[in-house]
Amino acid sequence: MRRFDNTGGMSRRSFLRSSTAAAGGLLVALYVERSAVAAGTAAAPAFPPSAFVTIGADGRIVIMVNRIEVGQGIHTSLPMILADELDADWAAVTAEIAPVADVYKDPILGMQMVAGSTATANSYRQYRELGAKTRAMLVATAAERWRVGADRCRTENSVVYGPSGRSARYGELAADAARRPIPEKVRLKEPGELRIIGKRVRRLDGRAKVDGSQKFGLDLDLPGMKTALVARPPLFGGGVKSFDDKAARAVAGVRDIFQVPLTYGGSGVVVVADGFWPAKQARDRLKIEWDLAGVERADTAALLASYKDKARRTATVAAAIGDAGAIDKLGADRTIVAEYEFPYLAHAPMEPLNTIIRYDRDRAEVWMASMSGTADHLAIAQVLGLPPAKVTCHLLFGGGGFGRRGPLDCHLAREAAAVAKQLPGTAVKLVWTREDDIRGGYYRPMFVHRVQVGIGADGKPAAWKHVIVGQSFMKDSGLPFEPYLVKDGIDHLVVEGTVNHPYTIPNFHLSADHTKVNVPVLSWRSIGHTHNSFVVETMIDELAARAKVDPIEYRLRLLRPEEKRLISSMKLLRDKTAAWRSSLPVGRALGVACGTYYGSGIACAVDVSIENGRPRIHRATAALDCGVAVNPMTIEAQVHSGFVFGLSQLVAGGAITLADGVVEQRNFDRFTPPYMADAPVEIDVHLVPSTEAPTGMGETPVPVISPAVANALAALTGKRYRTLPITKL
Amino acid sequence: MKDFQLEVNGERRTVTVDPSTPLLWVLRDGLKMTGTKYGCGIGACGACTVHLDGVATRSCLVPVSLVGARRVVTIEGIARDAVGAAVQDAWVETDVVQCGYCQSGQIMTAVALLKSKPDPSDGEVEQSMGGTLCRCGTYARIRVAVRRASSRAK
Amino acid sequence: MPGLTCAGCHPQANADATGVPGAPDWHLAPLSMQWQDASDTPLASGEVCRAVVDRSKNNNLDGAGLVKHVAEDALVLWAWSPGVRTDGTARSAPPLTHDAFVRATRRWVEGGTPCP
Predict the structure, then answer these.
(1) Which of A17, A244, A567, B94 would be A287's cystine partner, CB 3.0–4.6 Å?
(2) Using CA atoms in the order A96, A99, A102, A103, what is the torsion angle rounded to 10 degrees?
């Protein structure tokens, strides 16, 4: 297969190796000004198409995807974007996940990562230009062969057509095209010219994921590879005092047992064996004496009491609009005071966490489904004491992520590197059992919100005073993102969704108390919106109910005019749900919620009843505006996904609790995320037509579903649900 | 360590393992058949579902010593069954998968359902599929795909 | 339900490595044989006794059939070798031996299955 290649005869592999060599520590703002991205004005570096597109003589087109696929569908959408501008034959397109290399860094974030629903938003223009440049090089090649002007050629379905009925397939042109200079400027298609973008396209990874052939990290089998499991301390930060591994070493297939430092602090004991089962059998037989002296024992019942107490006092101010004292001027009969409780939440992706590293003293090779490839690459190099150029990182398909595969302290990568370093020449797969995962921390933090809302004579909120108490994983993290996200002592990721709520409220005061607790915490799909939107959207619903106004109309009257995408989404929701809302059977109720997340507006309505003491969601309708819908098929899937994931915080068994420092859940027996019966039976998704640049969709649906369901439950029972998960109706 | 003779996807296989080893790890680490997934190890998620003599079984809970002469069919072999192929095709057409990790278990469960109830009611689909966890939340499309496979297989 | 049967998790013998109890044809008793009322409260001993001898509820067993059931049924026998829990500790067995249980059942049947 000849390569479409302009790197002076270098193969893509060697090209990548040299790119990796240049991998530095360049980190730019996670949250850059979104309007710049949307307008396409953000400075885009020049990307060599050869690193992204390979066209074989047989016409096969391989497109490199600069993000890992964890279910979000990016492995199909980014190739669609490139293939559209390339005028490629979609049937000839396959995709590959790019390894860690400078050239694959997100053009806006400056690093490879899956975070903030940024993939399509940040790489839309990049992939379009890559496609257009590649197409221009193919056209120029054909034009030169035919001695005609390039402007007299057109392209369609991987063929260049010239005057007088001449045509040439891309496969015939690719080798020559690769030698041409890369054009600096190319014309991108007008909306009416798009042929693949906007179509319902099935996933490129669909077949491999139904016949068992798709390999995840846990499935990789390298020559001589060993499986490692770590016995972790019962308290976060605890360490090993001593251990007796006699019985463990007696298990057939055990190769080594030693102590390892843990990134969060403290240490554990690692068992290295020929496979998972001997490693687990041996780990179960270790007798470890833990050093837990002085380790803080977090206890969620005690934390709750302390958070509730803190929530009664104004903390660090995040926003103060209008008259801070306005709330006190309204009488008790015109004021609602509400306290909300949110638990720790585990991500629990279906594929247990794992990292494979082979350390060969002067170099190393890594295989991982990392959501922060650049940072993990550097962390591994640091632990191994190697220059980053000597560490090759292959990125893999991940069996779910939701934020868990990109911990900011890179502990998955660091711990695997610490183990591999002890076993030079051997590929080691460090695996987290499900118990390790559920009990392993890095949760969505626990929060308490206290809200006082004063209601004006018009039934609208006249004053809103709000205190948020809970941990920040960004404040004092020392991470390069910190200055962009933590300002004046407030972590935006804790208050997002409330600080920038979409409603007109004349007097608004928000403060937050970022607590320090010995429980490692992390971003969890849609981060701060998970709890903030629950509070805002259930409170707005309560206000609508008190005003005796339809919840959709109430929101439309109260949404700020600049919330254009949200307003258009809400109006679409109103239209699309009109029929079922007006014919709800007895015992069923409507619940509504909405919000703007990651640049996209979403409005949601659910039809809920109570069956066997549990919410039964008969239908969920979503209306949303995410700009150009690159692949409506995967957008719809993301709505399904976001809704079910969002319900994780509502279902009775969804909480992580700690008693005297110990996590009380171990596995899917006591920690139970939504199963089929907990999910909406039917979901219909409606998109606001748009030609604006696409915005985030991976997290957008998550925050709205729980408040929508809680609002429906309130309509059914007359009670307001302010404690998650909802264990009793 | 002991030798065990297994029939996997119609082939005789011999493995030398500790008798306590769950069938899941015999398949994955021993026979290098990684389509069957580890999700929880306690039978709570269904990702490891295989068929033993046609019965959908959570392979993480069955020690290899108790498999005996029962025929093991995994996701790698289910396409040879007409219902298995119909279910896989329906899954692709419906674009069910997201991360895809749980889908081997979902499909093996759906095939067992449709082989015993070719035209299940919505309630029966929910009961049968209701114990297999998907964190990506593909449940609504799973319902559609089971229905599609049901009409296809008839 | 197909796809989610008892045997999907419970093997044909106890799997002590994973703590899952098992026996041939593992299943719950049918609803006709339930010894609890709708709110899960155990029935009085007399009611249990009458349910056990009611051939419309007991799978049509006569006295001899009842003795054979308690003497030989694999799931009944399992109660006297119930295996270990996931944490490795032993499950508790009934407070009398299986032999004593069978002898007592036979005596009760020979006495005409009287109920309190």
Answers:
(1) A244
(2) -10
One-letter amino acid for residue A117 of the chain: S
**Partners of residue B136 in chain A, C-beta under 8 Å:** 71, 350, 400, 641, 644-645
Residue extents of the structural domains in chain A: 12-193, 217-294+353-431, 311-345+443-717
Q: Would you say residue A583 has pLDDT above 90?
A: yes
- The pLDDT of C63-92, averaged and rounded, is 92
**B32-86 pLDDT tens trace:** 999 999 999 999 999 999 999 999 999 999 999 999 999 999 999 999 999 999 9
CB atoms within 10 A of CB A53: 29
pLDDT of residue A161: 98
Instruction: Count the Cβ atoms, other than its own, within 10 Å of residue A546.
Output: 14
Mean pLDDT of B121-150: 97
CA distance A499 to A509: 9
From the list B103, B104, B133, the residue facing A675 with the nearest CB is B133
Neighbours of C17 (CB within 10 A): 21
Question: Domain A217-294+353-431, what fold?
Answer: Aldehyde Oxidoreductase; domain 4 (3.30.365)
Of B73, B89, B109, which one is at a domain's C-terminal end?
B73
**pTM as predicted:** 0.93
CB A256 within 8 A of CB A272: yes
Give the span between the Cα atoms of A267 and B81, in whole angstroms.
50
Residues 6+ apart with CB under 8 A from A262: A230, A232, A233, A268, A411, A415
For residue C24, cis peptide bond before it (omega within 30 degrees of 0)? no
A437-490 pLDDT, tens digit per residue, is 999 999 999 999 999 999 999 999 999 999 999 999 999 998 888 999 999 999
Closest CA to A302 of A658, A25, A711: A658
> Tens digits of per-residue pLDDT, A35-72?
333 344 444 445 677 899 999 999 999 999 999 999 99
Residue to test with chain C: of B2, B25, B55, most C Cβ within 10 A:
B55
In angstroms, the CA A698 to CA A67 distance is: 13
User: What is the topology classification, in CATH, of domain A311-345+443-717?
Assistant: Aldehyde Oxidoreductase; domain 4 (3.30.365)
